Structures are given as C-alpha cells and as structure tokens.
Amino acid sequence: MADADEKGPDLNVDMEVADKAFGELRDHGTWLIESEPTHSWFAPLLVRLIQSTLREYQHLKIGHAKSIPFLSWACRNMLELNIITQHVLKSEDDAKDFADDRFTDGLEVFQSFKTWSEFSDPEFTTPALDQTIAWIREQITNGAVTRKSYLKLRDLAKGIKLGEEYQHLNKVTSKLIHPTAWSLLSMREEGELLFLKPIFFHAGVRHGIELSHRIHQHVKEFGPEPRP
User: Fold this and answer.
1) What distance in Å separates the CA atoms of residue 185 and residue 188, rounded to the nearest whole number?
2) d(CA 100, CA 9)
3) pTM for this structure?
4) Is the pLDDT confidence value at 216 over 60?
5) What angle do CA 54, 227, 101 make, to 5 degrees?
6) Rounded to an integer, what distance in angstroms lies between the CA atom of residue 197 and that of residue 200?
C-alpha cells in the first residue's frame, strides 16, 4: 500500500503548459464571437463549447487541489465536451443535429420536472412551466425536428472512436462521484487514491487540449462555418 504521506507528481509544469493551451482556446472563442459567419448558429455553438471547456479546466484545478470526486467529475465532463466537439465538427448535419437537441433535451428536462412536481405535490400548478413546454414543442414543429430523443453520448463517442474510453471513464468516475458503499464507507483521499489525482487531471487536460486542437484545425480550414 502506498504511504499516505507520499505525494504524487508535481503538476506545476503541466499546469503552465495547460494554461497556455487553454489561453489559445480562449482566443479562438473571442475571434468566433467577433466573426460574421454565414451560418449564424454555428459560431455561437462553438463559443459555448469553448466556454464550457474553459470552465471545466478551472474545475479540474479546483478538484486537484481540494476534491477527488470533483476532479473526476470535471475529467469526465472534459471527455464529454471533447466527444461533442468532435461530433459537431464532423459535418453541418451533425452540428445541426446537436443544436436541435437543445429542444428535444430541454423538453425532456421540463416535462420530467413537471411530472416530478405533480408527484411531489398534486396541488402544485405550473402555468409558467406549461408555457415553456408549449413553446419548446412549437420550436420543434417549426424547426422540423423529427427525433424523439436527444443524442446519446455513448453513441457519439463510438462515432469518433472514443467509445471504449467513454465506457471505462464513465464507470470509474461514477464510482467516485455518486454515493456508493465504497465511496461512503471507505473512500479517503490518501494512499493509492491520492495517485489517481494526477491521472484524472492529465486525462481531463488531454481531452481539453485535443478539442482545442480540433477547433483550431477547423477554424483554419473552414473559418466560423460548419464543415460542408
């Protein structure tokens, strides 16, 4: 068993390199915000992915300093953002499908909340929520969105050859993030578990840098427009 007082690798250099890489990603976001694309919906989609990635990078650093569950959660989020980014960069149709998911996904969120609210309190009324659901349905009809369910991350991951990594990372991070017998009764941020910290941090940074590279290559070739 590893010594509980033993420290993992020094990450200072890695963080300096990562800070530079994510700074360049921030610059791409600024350029996209200032661009005037033909497809007005695509650049904002990339900007939101960039903003989310920069947020998760901060979460990685916070998690590394303070909490392994928080760190593993941020690492998985980075993988999922990498998967989504690579998917939307594949083609205009793929990007549009994901953009349309804000309606199919949002409808499921608000319908589920309404169902739960009515179950919790049968007397509870939700007129504002009903209006939101009606508005989303109208957007789905007007946008000719035919899919009944949002895109699944596991399916997107398979399409860009990250299926196995998503499967394995999703399982191990779920064990650390959610309340389980082991996480509640046995998990301590010491010993062998302490050495998972740099692994999660490096993996999260790797996925963030990979999606940053993909966006850089896309912008270099297609500017703020989707791949035809």
Assistant:
1) 9
2) 43
3) 0.88
4) yes
5) 60
6) 5
